[in-house]
Design goal:
The structure holds two protein chains of two kinds. By secondary structure, chain A is α/β, with parallel strands linked by helices. Chain A folds into four domains: 219 residues, Pyruvate-ferredoxin oxidoreductase, PFOR, domain III (Pyruvate-ferredoxin Oxidoreductase, domain 3); 193 residues, Rossmann fold; 74 residues, no CATH class; 112 residues, Rossmann fold (3-Layer(aba) Sandwich). Chain A contains 21 helices and 23 strands. In chain A, strands 11-10-12-13-15-14-21 form a seven-stranded mixed sheet, with helices on both faces. In chain A, strands 3-4-2-5-6-7 form a six-stranded mixed sheet, sandwiched between helices. Chain A is globular. In chain A, helix 1 packs parallel to helix 6, helix 6 packs across helix 8 and helix 11 packs parallel to helix 12. By secondary structure, chain B is of the alpha/beta class. Chain B has a domain of 216 residues: 3-Layer(aba) Sandwich (Rossmann fold), CATH 3.40.50. The chains are: A alpha/beta, B alpha/beta. Chains A and B meet through helix 1, strand 9, helix 9, helix 11 and helix 12 of A and strand 1, strand 2, helix 2, helix 4 and helix 11 of B.
Amino acid sequence: MTAPSVTQPVRKDVRQVGTVTIRFAGDSGDGMQLTGDRFTSVTAKVGNDLATLPDFPAEIRAPAGSLPGVSGFQLHFADHDILTPGDAPEVLVAMNPAALRTNVGDLTPGGLLVVNEDAFTRGNLKKAGYAANPLDDGSLSGYQVVRVPVTTLTLGALEDTELSSKEKHRAKNMFALGLMCWMYSRPTEPTVDWLRVKFRTRPQIAEANVAALAAGFAFGETTELFAHAYEVKPAKLQPGRYRQITGNLALAYGLIAAAHRSGLPLFLGSYPITPASDILHELSKHKNFGVRTFQAEDEIAGIGAALGAAFAGNLAVTTTSGPGVALKGETIGLAVSVELPLVIVNIQRGGPSTGLPTKTEQSDLLQAMFGRNGEAPVPIVAPAHPGDCFNAAVEAARIALTYRTPVMLLSDGYLANGAEPWRLPDLDGLPDLAGAVAFAREPDPDGTYRPFARDADTLARPWAIPGTPGLEHRIGGLEKADGTGAISYDPDNHHRMVELRAAKVAGIARTIPPLAVDDPGDGARLLVLGWGSTYGPIAAAVRRARARGLPVARAHLRHLNPFPANTGEVLRRYDRILVPEMNRGQLRLLLRGEYLVDARGYNHVRGLPFSSAELEQAITDELADLEAAPA
Amino acid sequence: MTLLDQPAQLPLTKKDFTSDQEVRWCPGCGDYAILSTVQGVMPDLGVARENIVFVSGIGCSSRFPYYMDTYGFHSIHGRAPAIATGISATRPDLKVIVVTGDGDGLSIGGNHLIHALRRNVDLTIILFNNQIYGLTKGQYSPTSELGKITKSTPFGSLDHPFNPVSLALGAEATFVARSLDTEREHLAATVEAATRHRGASFVEVYQNCNIFNDGAFAALKDDPEGNQIRLAHGRPVVFAGGARGVVQDPTGGLRIVEVAEVGEDALLVHDAHRDDPTLAFALSRLAHTPMGPTPVGLFRQVDRPVYGDLVQAQLADATAARGRGDLEVLLAGQDTWVVD
C-alpha cells in the first residue's frame, strides 16, 4: 500500500475565528484521549494558545456504548492568551449515542454537533437510554447537526488493507481527527509522522491510521455538509521557545531540574495511584539523569524509602493522591520530627475515600495542613496552571532542602492531565540549590556533633549523611533534646522543640515573594483570592467582570503554609474577600482563622474545574451584596 | 571491591561501637545479650563505623540504634525495612542493619519485611522474637502460641502463630538463620555470617522477655542438647549428642528419629546452599513453635542478584547508552516552536 498524500490544498472558503472550544467524546475504547492529544499537539504547532480538559471514567473499559464508559477531551484554542479549557464547547464530536447524551447538554446553543451516525444503532441507542433516535426526532434542532457515517467511511478507506475488522474499526478516531484538522486548518503531517513512529513495528496499522486520517481530511474538503473551514491565527504569546506540556510532565521535569540544580541524585519512592502515576512513569524513564525510582509495596513504603533516601543524601520525593497521603501521614510526621528534606506530591482528586479517582478537586488542603498527630507543621506549595507545576516542584525542593523539612506540593487532577503551551525556562535563571544542600562534614571543634543545632537564619538543622566520619549520630521519632538530639522527655525541652519547628516553617515566609494583587486601581472593594488550579477560571472570570465595568481585584496564593508575609495587609485592604475553591471552604477557614477577615466562599465539588461564567456570576452576586451592605 | 573487603582505617574495638546513651531495657532482658554480641561482632566486619547504619521501627528491640555508635534511625512502627530499602538502594557503600521484633516486623510491618526479602535488598534484618508485645505491656504477638493468656486475651489467644523462619523462606530470602540470645558464640557467628551476606539476610533471635513472657524458650535453654537441633551445612542433622536425628521421608517430609533405629546413613544431610528452598522450609516445619526439638543455625544461604546492584546497573546502562542526561534537551522534547 502506498502512503497517500494527506494534506490537500484547502479550496473551500476559510473564515477567521479568534477562539474555538471543541470537545471529542466517545466510548472509552474509541481513542478519544489520543485524538484530543494529537489535536492539541498540532494546535500547539500552529502557535495558538490553548488549554485542555481531559475527562475520562475511572473504569478502564466500561461496557461498550454505555453512559459510564464515555470519555471526553475538551480543547480551547485561540489567537490570544487564554486561561481555561473553555466553559462550554462550540463544537462537539460525538462518536456514539452515549457520548451525545452525556455531552450535548454542555454544547453552546447553535453549536456544531458532528456525530458518527453509523453508531446510532438500536442497540447503542438503547444502551444510552434513548427511546427514539435523537438524530431523527427533532430534539437536536437547536444545534447545527452534521451526520457523518464515520464507521462506513473509515472501513471504506481501509477496504484494501488486510487488517481485521476490529483493527479497521479502531481507526475511526483518526478519521474524526482528520475531519477536524480540515475544519480548523491544522496540518496532518505531524500526526502522520507520529503514527509512523508509534507503530514502527506494525507498519500496516500505521498506514491504516494514516489512510483514515487522510480520508477524514478529504471528506471535509469534498462533502457539501460543510460550507467552509476555519482558521485560528497564532497567538501573540511572550517571545520564547515553546512546547506543549501537561501538569504531571512539568512536575516530573521540575523535580529533575531541582535535582540538577542541587547536585543531588533524585529518588522517588511511590505506589501507583490515579492521577499521580504518570509522574512515576515519567521519572522511571530518566535513569541517565541519575534518577532512581522505586515502586514500593504500598504507599507507606513509598514514603518510607524516600525518607531513608533523604537520610542517605538524596533529593527524596514521594508522589501520590489524597488516599495515599492519608497512609503516609505517620511518616510525614516522622520527617517533621527528624527534620529531613522530603517532597510529598499530592495530585488531588475527588474524595472522601476512593471518591472520584479521575476527577479533580482541591479538598486536601486541610489534610496537608493538619493531617498528622501532634504539632507537625508542613510547608505547602500549590501550582496555578499546568506549566507552573515545573516551578512549583523546584520551589518545593528549594524549601525542603533549605529548611530540612517535608514539603507538600498540592497539584490536582485538572492540572495533572491538562495541557498548555509552555515557554521553556532559562535554566540559569532557576534557583541555585547547591548552597541549600551543604552537607555537614566536620565535627564541632570540641570533637562532638550536634545533629539538632540550628542555623541562626533558617533554623534548619545540619544534614550529616552516613559515610561521613566523625558525625555518626542517631535520629528518630522520639522527642530530641534541642542541640544534641539525645532522647529527651524534659517538659521545657519539648515545648521549645515544638516552638522551634513551628518557627522554622513560619520563617519560610521571609524567602517567598509577597502576595501580588492584580488591582486596576478603580476603587475595587472586592478581592477574589484563589489558590492552585482555580487560577485560570478566576482570572478569566475577573477579566469578564472587568469588561463589564465591574471593579474587582484578584490575587492568587502559591504558598499556603506559610502564607506570604503581606497576606493579612492585602486582605484588610478590601471590604470583601471572595474565595472560590473546589472544596467546602478550606482556604477560607484558614484565612478566617489566621487573619479574622470576612472571607466568603464560592464552593463547588463537581469533579470539574470552575467555568469562568459561573465565577463571573459569583463575582457579580458578591458585588451586589457588597453594594447593598452598609459600607 | 566490595565494602566488606576494605580494611578499616583503624582496628576497631567493641567500645568504638558503644554509644554514650544509657541502655534502658528492663534488667534481665535478653536484649542486653544481643546488644553486647552485636557490638562485639562489628569490629570483625572491617567496616568503618561511618559506613554502618542501624534502622529500627518501634518496640523494645527498636531502641537498639541509640546504643550503637554508628549512624542510626529509630523510625516508626513496622516501617524500618522500607526506610532501610531507601538507604540501601541509593547507597550501596553502606552496611545497613535492621533491628525489629515479632510485633514490629511480623504484625504491623509484615508487608515491608516480606517485600524487602523478596527484592533481596542488601540488608541484614535481625528479628528479636520474644513472642509478646513488651513495650505496650504484654499483649499477645503474631508469634505467641495458640491459647496464650495475655492482657488482651484473658480467655486465650485464638490466632495461629507465625513461624518467622518459615515466613522468611516463603518470601524467598537468600539468607535465613535462627539463634538464641543466650547462645553467645552461636549468635555472634550467625550475626557475623548474616552481615557478611550480600543481599537480604534474615536472623530470628529467640529473645527472653523476663517481664511479660519469661521462659518462652525454656525448652531450648534448659535442655540445649535435647531440644536445639544445630544445623551445619554438609553435615547430618543430629542432636541429643548424636542420639537423635532427622530423616527425609520419600514424600519429602522430615521426621525426627532415633539414630540407632535408622542408622547414620539414613540421616538427612543439611544443604543450606541448595537453590530450591523446600528443604530449608521443611526443616523450619520440624517445630512450629519452640516447645520441643527446634532447628537453630543457618537454614538457607544462596546467591541472587542484589536489588541495589541492579538499580545501579540500570543507571549505568542508561548512561552508557544515552550519555549523561542533558536537561535542556529533555525539557525541549521533540516538538517546540518559537514565538518572536
